[in-house]
UniProtKB/TrEMBL annotation:
EC number: 3.5.99.6
Family: Belongs to the glucosamine/galactosamine-6-phosphate isomerase family. NagB subfamily.
Enzyme class: hydrolase
Any one biological process term the GO annotation gives: N-acetylneuraminate catabolic process
Physiological role: Catalyzes the reversible isomerization-deamination of glucosamine 6-phosphate (GlcN6P) to form fructose 6-phosphate (Fru6P) and ammonium ion.
Catalytic reaction equation(s): alpha-D-glucosamine 6-phosphate + H2O = beta-D-fructose 6-phosphate + NH4(+)
Pfam families: Glucosamine_iso
GO molecular-function terms, A-Z: glucosamine-6-phosphate deaminase activity; identical protein binding; isomerase activity
Protein's UniProt name: Glucosamine-6-phosphate deaminase
Length: 233
């Protein structure tokens, strides 16, 4: 893993943008995208740039089960607001949270990824070490699957909803195996509440207790953290 420590998420966003830019300059055509507060500064820098994605494809990591694309807390909606309105792609894929048939939806999404191999995947990091919505204990061999969110993730994500009871209990997520197929991976993490997960991801054993630790098995991972998130390293 290549570790870059920055002062804050503003500087991290700029560095994240540079990673996108170099993938773009090297011919990347499929960008794996993430939601959450972490990638926002990178998306801002991309939005302000002259990069053009109108011939490119994006594939998002995950979506809450039960939320339609026009729900303000859906990941579809998030992507629209933070990136796609400013930088449209030729094709943008996000799991369909309204599909009640998990077997069909996860197979459909696996096929999308097979047809559009990801050149650069951006990731955030859960406080419990999750990536996408791959919670601790997830079988690393899984590709896209339906996930029961853990209590800690529901609590962490409740800040985006009016109250905790509105947070969906399930999500569709790319698996760890899907993520590891990406050619390049960029993970960003900011804030002290991520420090333990960062340490376990970078220095700890590779274990299902810390899904992000499987990134140690990938040959091309860049990790951008601020000083607070790096404080336990
Ligand atoms: C969510 C998302 C992840 C994200 C993580 C961290 O649960 N499914 O993709 O990386 O939590 O969120 P944040 O970036 O807001 O800290």
């Amino acid at each position: 893993m290549k570790l870059i420590v920055v002062k804050d998420r503003q500087e991290g966003g700029q560095k994240g943008y540079n990673v996108f830019q170099s993938a773009y300059d090297n011919g990347a055509k499929v960008f794996g995208l993430a939601t959450g507060s972490t990638p926002i500064t990178t998306y801002e820098a991309i939005s302000a740039s002259d990069m053009d994605f109108t011939q490119m494809t994006s594939v998002n990591l995950d979506e809450y089960v039960g939320l339609a694309a026009d729900h303000p807390q859906s990941y579809h909606y998030f992507m629209q607001e933070h990136l796609f309105n400013q930088k449209p792609f030729a094709h943008s894929y996000v799991p369909d949270g309204t599909n009640p048939d998990a077997v069909a939806e996860t197979a459909r999404y696996d096929q999308i990824i097979a047809d559009n191999p990801i050149d650069l995947q951006i990731l955030g990091l859960g406080q419990n070490g999750h990536i996408g919505f791959n919670e601790p204990g997830t079988d690393p061999e899984l590709t896209t699957h339906k996930v029961a969110l853990t209590e800690s993730t529901i609590k962490a994500n409740a800040r985006f909803f009016d109250n905790e009871s509105e947070v969906p209990r399930y999500a569709y997520s790319m698996g760890i195996a899907s993520i590891l197929k990406s050619q390049h991976i960029l993970l960003e993490a900011y804030g002290e509440e991520k420090a333990a997960a960062v340490k376990a991801m970078v220095e700890g054993p590779i274990t299902t207790d810390v899904p992000a630790s499987f990134l140690q098995n990938h040959a091309d991972v860049t990790v951008i953290v601020d000083e607070a998130a790096a404080s336990k390293l």
